[in-house]
Write a structure and sequence with these properties.
Blueprint (H helix, E strand, L loop, with lengths): L3 E6 L4 E8 L2 E2 L1 H4 L28 E4 L4 E4 L2 E2 H7 L2 H10 L5 H12 L6 H8 L7 H15 L13 H23 L12 H10 L10 H13 L7 H10 L5 H12 L7 H12 L5 H9 L18 H17 L4 H14 L1 H5 L7 H11 L6 H21 L29
Antiparallel strand pairs: 1-2, 2-3, 4-5, 5-6
Carboxymethyl coenzyme *A (CMC) binds next to loops.
Length: about 425
């Protein structure tokens, strides 16, 4: 006999036996449980706290144990051993590439890094102080106008060119957004250097004949890209899947994902952490700030997670990467404040009982700042690598026969039906 759940409805006295599989109850089966008026039972789950919306083989998180795997591989091994593009291939195709596959993949990505000149003009049309995420979102959504085949209904059967294009163009779009804000001329990509090195060159090259970033800094950014490449059904990935569910192509879906990522409770947290550290200003102000957090005055940004109830494994790797970066750049003075915040929070009853630990965003901003980025760029640095995860999830959803257009229910709280009153009779 299969696993079942027996439910007795005390409203009607009826008993129901509902199937359970993979530790999951189908919400649709609840609808069989009807009240005296025949209304089926509905599950209410704001923020989808306990609702699975898909089967996925891309990433796995065990929140209590602090585990993150991509396609079965521990994040620690991938961060130590792989380049970002190798991991992007793994996410998109499900297996690590062979040497020949990686060569071809890198070649293809390198040769799609240029963006259409009109997209460059679009970025140019923004005010200089526009947030880079606003530019990135618009530029990505505009790409479907340049590659109209990306809207074909059966694209999911052969999306490989679009996937390569988008992964390739993200660093160029982000770098151009940054150079535009800084009032600097754009630097075009080169086809003979790595993805991450190309990105740093497009960002930071000034008058040098042959700008080459410090390889230790390239490695640090590569590790950060690996750590941010996917994180199963988070807010932005769910947005990508939702927008895809009405039949959209990758550029529209990823542009929507960028919008979701922008929020300070999601990818915008890294920017918010840095602002918070600056506001605290000195290590002696930390206890007062923590008191404010505990009385509801502020949130400790970069702390807490919906799924991790243990140290976020990515935060642990980032913390050690920060030390490698500071060996090259000198220590970021805000590190001392961050370490003190972490020390106090990890001992404090408020944070301990709520199981709030540092997440991926707590230390990443310190590294980004040491690498020379303004806080406004931080979330764009998250969006570039997350594109591989979004595309893997977009493709998985589009090829999943179980998926339907997303259309949740609501609990209506408005007025009962009433009738129109002409304006001269309204009180
Ligand atoms: N500082 C202070 N209190 C917190 C924090 C925090 N950072 N996070 C959660 N809490 C408290 C919250 O007030 C609540 O307390 P109570 O039970 O007394 O009402 C309890 O912990 C549970 O919080 P929640 O808001 O119900 O939890 P959630 O799962 O809905 O939110 C979160 C998760 C990540 C949005 C939240 O922890 C948060 O706002 N953190 C700060 C922002 C942040 O760092 N976001 C990055 C997340 S990781 C990267 C990513 O997803 O992009």
């Amino acid at each position: 006999m299969g696993e079942t759940l027996t439910i007795r409805d005390n409203r009607t006295g009826e008993t129901y036996e509902l199937p359970v599989s993979e530790g999951t109850l189908r919400a649709k089966d609840l609808f069989r449980i009807r009240d005296a008026d025949g209304h089926g039972l509905v599950s209410f789950d704001p923020g989808m706290f306990n609702t699975a919306t898909c089967h996925s083989s891309v990433a796995y998180i065990h929140g209590d144990k602090g585990i993150l795997d991509y396609r079965g591989y521990p994040i620690e091994e991938l961060a130590e051993r792989c380049s970002y593009l190798e991991v992007a291939y793994l996410l998109v195709y499900g297996e690590l590439p062979t040497g020949a596959q990686l060569d071809q993949w890198e070649y293809d990505i390198n040769h799609h890094m240029f963006i259409p000149e009109n997209v460059k003009k679009l970025i140019d049309a923004f005010p200089y102080d526009a947030h880079p995420m606003a530019k990135l979102m618009s530029a990505v959504s505009s790409l479907h106008a340049f590659y109209p085949e990306s809207r074909e209904a059966d694209l999911h059967l052969s999306p490989h060119l679009q996937i390569r294009r988008l992964i390739a163009k993200m660093p160029t779009l982000a770098a151009f957004s940054y150079r535009h804000s800084a009032g600097l001329p754009f630097v075009y990509p080169r086809d003979d250097i790595s993805y991450v090195e190309n990105f740093m060159r497009m960002l930071f090259m000034m008058g040098e004949r042959d700008y080459r970033p410090d390889p230790r800094l390239v490695h640090a950014l590569e590790v950060l890209f690996v750590l941010h490449a996917d994180h199963e059904q988070n807010c932005s990935t769910t947005t990508v899947r939702t927008v895809a569910s009405s039949g959209n192509g990758p550029y529209t879906c990823v542009s929507a994902g960028i919008g979701a990522l922008f929020g300070p409770l999601h990818g915008g947290a890294n920017e918010a952490v840095l602002r918070m550290l600056r506001e605290i200003g000195d290590v002696s102000h930390v206890p007062e700030f923590i008191r404010g957090v505990k009385t509801g005055g502020a949130r400790l940004m970069g702390f807490g997670h919906r799924v991790y109830k243990n140290y976020d494994p990515r935060a642990r790797i980032i913390k050690s990467t920060a030390h490698d970066v500071f060996e090259v750049t000198g220590v970021n003075p805000l590190l001392e404040i961050a370490l003190e915040l972490e020390r106090i929070a990890l001992e404090d009853e408020y944070f301990v009982t709520r199981r709030l630990y540092p997440n991926v965003d707590f230390y990443s901003g310190l590294i980004y700042e040491a690498l020379g980025f303004e806080p406004e760029m931080f979330t764009a640095l998250f969006a570039i690598p997350r594109t591989a995860g979004w595309l893997a999830q977009w493709m998985e959803g589009a090829n999943d026969a179980e998926q339907k257009i997303v259309r949740p229910k609501q609990i209506y709280t408005g007025p009962a039906r009433r009738h129109f009153v002409p304006i001269d009779q309204r009180g």
